[in-house]
C-alpha cells in the first residue's frame, strides 16, 4: 500500500467514525442547550438501539430496513420516556440532582441490558451490502460512504428543522431563556420532550450506522461512544449545533490519525486529553458563546 | 451564654469520644483474637473502613463544596499505585513504611487533584464533572500502557502489580478512618469550612462577601483527593494486587451512590451508607447480578423523592447528645429537689 492510499483510507475511516460521533454529539448538545443537563444516558440509548436491530434481524429475521426504522423509533420513544420519568420531576431541583439522576439512568440502562441480554456481545448481521469503491489504489468501504452520506443528510434536515420550522423556533427560544419563552406562550414541556425525541432519534440513526461499522452489540458499547461524542460536543462548543458537527468530525479524524501512527492503545487517553486542554484553553469550545451568569 | 452551649466542656467531649473509639477498637480486636470474627469478617471490616474514607472524602467535594467529581476512583488508583510501588521498593520495616506509604499515596493523589482542580474549578457549572471524568479515564489508560513507553515494568499494566506487602489491618484502617473523620469535621467547623459551605449555598453571594472562591474550592477538592489517595494506599495494602480495571468509572459511581444515599453534606450519613453498601452485597451474594441495577434505581429514586438523602445534612454529635442527657438529668434532679421542698 502506498502512502497515498493509507492516508485516503484513514481519512475515510476518520470521517466515518466522526459522522457517528457528530450525530451523537448533536443529541448531547441539544439537550444541554435546552435544560443545561449533561444527559449521561444518551450513549446508552445507542446501545438499546443496537440491541433492537439485533433482536429484529437475528432473532426475528426481519429485513434490515425494518430493523433500522424500528431502532430509530425505539430510541425516540425511550428518550422521551426517560425525560418524562426521570428528568421532568426534577425541573425545579438543583442541577447536581439532575446530573446524578442522569448518571443513574445511564447505569440502569447498562445493567438492565446486561441482565436481560447477558454480558457477552452479540454478533450483528450485515445491514448494508455493497461493493467497495476504489480511488486510485485506495479501497474505501461502501459502509463508510453510506455512513457519511446518511449523516450529512440527517444534519442538513436537522438544521432545516431548527432554523425553519415553528417547533425549531420554539426550541431556540426555550434554550435562549426558558422563562421568557413561557411568557410568550410556548409550551415548555412539549418543547423539551420534542428536543429529547429529536436527539434520541439521531442516536437511533447513529446506532444503526455504528452497528454497520462495528458489527456487535454489548451492554457497555454505549458508554465509551457516548463519552467520546460528549468530548466532541464540548470541543465544538456545547449547546451549538454546527459546533457538535465540527467537533464530531474532528474527534473522528484525530482518532484515525492516532491509530494510523500506531498508537491505538492511547486513543482514549488522547481524546480525553483533548477534552482537558479544550476546557483549560477555551471552555466554550470552537463555536460556543460565552454565557454570562445572572445574579 | 457563650460558655456551655452544648452542655459539656469541649475537652471532656474529646476525651469521651477518644475513650469510646478505643473501646470500639478493643472490642473489635478481642473479637478477632478470640476467633468469633473469621478472616472473612476481618476482610469485610477492612473494606468497610476503606469505603468509609472514600465516601467521606467524596462527600467533602460533593456534599460540602457542591461539586460533582466523577473521577474519585482515579485519585484512589493514583494513591494505591504510588504507595504500592513505594512499599515494594522500600527496605524499611513495615511499621515505618506503612505510614510513609499512606501519606505518599495521599500526597501524590493531592498533587493530581491540584493539577486537575486549578483549571476546572476556575470555571462555573459542570466542568469539574467533565474534567474529572476525563481524568479518571486517562489515569486508567496510562496505568495500563505506561510500561511500553518507559521500557521497564513500573505498573505492570494489565498483568497486575503483584506481591504488595499486606500491611493493612483492622486496627490501622480504623485509626485512619478516625483521623480522616476528625480532620474533615474540624475543617468543616472552622472558618475555612464555613467558606466552603458558603460556596455551596451561593457562589456569587460568597464571592461578593469576599470569599476567595477559587482558593477554597481548590482546597476542599485537593483535600478530597488526598484522602481518596490515602484510601487507595490502604486498599493496596489490603488486596496485595492491583489492576487498573478495578478503578474504572463504575467504581467512582459506587462511591457516589454511597454519598448520595447517605445524604450530601452529612458525614454520619456517608459512614452509615458506606457500611451498609459494603455489608449488603456480601449478605446478598446470590443476587449479585441485580446489585448494580438496584444501585442505579436507588440513585434515581433517591434523587426524585428525597434528594437530600437519608440523613440530609444532619450530623451526629456525641457531645450534643450527652449534653442534652445531662441537661435533662440535672433538670429532673432540680425538679425532684423542688418537689421535696
Task: Summarize this structure briefly.
The complex is a heterodimer of chains A (about 300) and B (about 350). With about 300 residues, chain A is mainly α. Helices cover about 75% and strands about 5% of the residues of chain A.
Total domains of chain A, how many?
Answer: 1
Number of beta strands of chain A: 4
The rounded distance between the terminal residues' Cα atoms of chain B is: 29 Å
Oligomer: heterodimer
> Sheet bearing the most strands of chain B, described?
none
Question: What is the largest interface, and how many residues per chain?
Answer: A-B, 43 and 44 residues
Ends apart, CA distance between termini of chain A: 61 Å
Would you write up a description of this structure?
The complex is a heterodimer of chains A (295) and B (341). With 295 residues, chain A is mainly α. Chain A has one domain (3-226). Chain A has 11 helices and 4 strands. In chain A, strand 2 and strand 3 (138-140) form a beta hairpin. In chain A, helix 3 (64-87) packs across helix 8 and helix 9 runs parallel beside helix 11 (267-281). Chain A is globular. The model of chain A has no long low-confidence stretch (mean pLDDT 86). Chain B has 341 residues and is an all-alpha fold. Chain B has a domain at 15-243. In chain B, 75% of the residues lie in helices and 0% in strands. Chain B contains 13 helices and no strands. The longest helix of chain B is centred in the N-terminal third of the chain and has 29 residues, at 94-122. Chain B is globular. The relative contact order of chain B is 0.17. The chains are: A mainly alpha (295), B mainly alpha (341). Chains A and B meet through helix 4, helix 9 and helix 11 of A and helix 4, helix 5, helix 10 and helix 12 of B.
Amino acid at each position: 500500500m502506498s502512502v497515498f492510499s493509507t492516508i485516503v483510507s484513514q481519512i475515510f475511516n476518520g470521517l466515518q467514525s466522526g459522522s457517528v460521533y457528530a450525530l451523537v454529539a448533536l443529541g448531547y448538545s441539544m439537550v444541554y442547550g435546552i435544560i443545561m443537563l449533561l444527559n449521561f444516558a444518551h450513549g446508552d440509548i445507542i446501545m438499546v438501539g443496537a440491541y433492537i436491530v439485533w433482536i429484529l434481524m437475528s432473532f426475528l429475521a426481519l429485513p434490515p430496513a425494518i430493523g433500522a426504522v424500528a431502532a430509530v423509533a425505539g430510541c425516540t420513544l425511550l428518550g422521551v420516556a426517560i425525560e418524562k420519568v426521570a428528568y421532568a420531576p426534577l425541573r425545579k431541583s438543583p442541577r447536581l440532582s439532575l446530573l446524578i439522576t442522569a448518571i443513574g439512568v445511564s447505569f440502569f440502562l447498562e445493567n438492565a441490558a446486561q441482565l436481560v441480554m447477558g454480558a457477552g456481545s452479540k454478533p450483528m448481521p450485515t445491514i448494508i451490502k455493497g461493493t467497495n469503491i476504489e480511488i486510485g489504489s485506495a479501497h474505501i468501504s461502501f459502509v463508510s460512504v453510506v455512513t457519511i452520506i446518511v449523516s450529512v443528510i440527517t444534519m442538513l434536515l436537522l438544521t432545516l428543522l431548527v432554523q425553519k420550522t415553528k417547533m425549531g423556533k420554539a426550541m431556540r427560544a426555550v434554550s435562549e431563556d426558558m422563562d421568557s419563552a413561557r411568557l410568550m406562550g410556548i409550551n415548555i414541556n412539549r418543547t423539551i420532550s420534542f428536543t429529547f425525541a429529536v436527539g434520541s432519534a439521531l442516536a437511533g440513526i447513529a446506532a444503526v450506522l455504528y452497528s454497520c461499522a462495528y458489527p456487535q452489540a454489548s451492554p457497555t458499547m454505549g458508554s465509551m461512544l457516548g463519552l467520546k461524542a460528549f468530548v466532541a460536543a464540548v470541543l465544538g462548543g456545547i449547546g451549538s449545533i454546527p459546533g457538535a458537527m465540527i467537533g464530531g468530525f474532528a474527534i473522528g479524524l484525530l482518532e484515525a490519525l492516532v491509530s494510523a501512527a500506531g498508537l491505538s492503545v492511547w486513543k482514549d487517553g488522547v481524546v480525553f486529553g483533548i477534552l482537558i486542554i479544550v476546557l483549560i484553553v477555551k471552555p466554550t469550545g470552537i463555536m460556543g458563546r460565552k454565557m454570562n451568569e445572572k445574579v | 451564654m457563650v460558655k456551655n452551649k452544648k452542655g459539656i466542656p469541649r475537652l471532656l467531649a474529646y476525651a469521651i469520644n477518644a475513650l469510646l473509639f478505643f473501646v470500639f477498637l478493643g472490642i473489635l480486636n478481642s473479637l478477632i483474637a478470640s476467633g468469633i470474627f473469621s478472616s472473612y469478617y476481618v476482610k469485610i471490616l477492612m473494606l468497610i473502613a476503606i469505603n468509609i474514607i472514600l465516601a467521606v472524602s467524596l462527600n467533602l467535594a460533593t456534599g460540602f463544596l457542591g461539586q460533582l467529581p466523577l473521577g474519585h476512583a482515579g485519585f484512589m488508583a493514583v494513591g494505591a499505585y504510588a504507595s504500592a510501588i513505594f512499599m515494594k521498593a522500600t527496605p524499611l520495616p513495615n511499621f515505618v513504611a506503612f505510614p510513609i506509604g499512606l501519606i505518599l499515596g495521599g500526597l501524590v493523589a493531592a498533587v493530581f487533584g491540584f493539577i486537575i482542580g486549578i483549571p476546572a474549578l476556575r470555571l462555573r457549572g459542570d466542568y469539574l464533572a467533565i474534567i474529572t471524568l476525563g481524568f479518571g479515564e486517562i489515569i486508567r489508560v496510562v496505568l495500563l500502557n505506561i510500561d511500553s513507553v518507559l521500557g521497564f515494568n513500573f505498573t505492570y499494566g494489565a498483568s497486575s502489580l503483584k506481591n504488595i506487602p499486606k500491611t493493612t489491618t483492622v486496627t490501622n484502617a480504623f485509626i485512619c478512618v478516625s483521623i480522616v473523620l476528625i480532620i474533615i469535621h474540624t475543617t468543616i467547623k472552622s472558618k475555612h469550612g464555613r467558606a466552603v459551605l458558603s460556596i455551596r449555598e451561593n457562589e456569587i453571594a460568597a464571592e461578593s462577601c469576599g470569599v476567595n472562591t477559587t482558593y477554597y474550592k481548590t482546597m476542599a477538592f485537593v483535600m478530597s483527593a488526598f484522602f481518596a489517595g490515602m484510601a487507595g494506599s490502604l486498599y493496596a495494602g489490603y488486596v496485595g494486587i492491583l489492576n487498573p480495571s478495578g478503578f474504572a468509572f463504575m467504581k467512582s459511581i459506587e462511591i457516589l451512590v454511597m454519598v448520595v444515599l447517605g445524604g450530601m453534606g452529612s458525614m454520619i450519613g456517608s459512614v452509615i451508607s458506606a457500611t451498609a453498601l459494603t455489608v449488603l452485597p456480601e449478605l446478598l451474594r446470590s443476587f449479585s447480578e441485580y446489585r448494580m441495577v438496584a444501585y442505579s434505581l436507588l440513585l434515581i429514586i433517591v434523587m426524585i423523592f428525597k434528594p437530600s438523602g437519608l440523613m440530609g445534612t444532619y450530623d451526629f454529635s456525641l457531645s450534643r447528645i450527652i449534653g442534652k442527657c445531662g441537661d435533662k438529668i440535672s433538670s429532673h434532679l432540680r425538679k425532684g429537689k423542688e418537689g421535696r421542698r
